Fold this protein.
Amino acid sequence: MHPHELHKIWKTQENKMTNEQINAAIAEVCGWKAVSVDGDSGFYRGFDNGAELRPDLPDYVNDLNAMHEAEKTLNKEQVREYQTYMYDMACEIDNTYGRWMPYSATARYRAEAFLKTLGKWEEEA
């Protein structure tokens, strides 16, 4: 099966959560919380001197750098499970060697694998 055919299958079968729902679920896992101060709203994470404040959530479904930061929150056991999901959802096949290439997965697929690893993926959005 050609990689583009796999992409079509995954796109129609599994992507039930919206991008906004995915971003919110990952942000919650990563410690982001909604805050409103003097009429201004935004999101923060961290405490004391290490706190970070921003007007919107990271765009995990489109930003590989944001997903990389999220991936850092996984423990060893979760990393193994995440890798299994990544192999199952790999979006390209290396035709030269006939191997799956999960490291070339899009941020969207990484986000889905991340949430499935943590049991936070919702099939019915």
Summary: The radius of gyration is 16 Å. The chain is about 45% helix and 15% strand. The chain has one domain: 3-117. The CA atoms of residues 61 and 108 lie 4 Å apart.
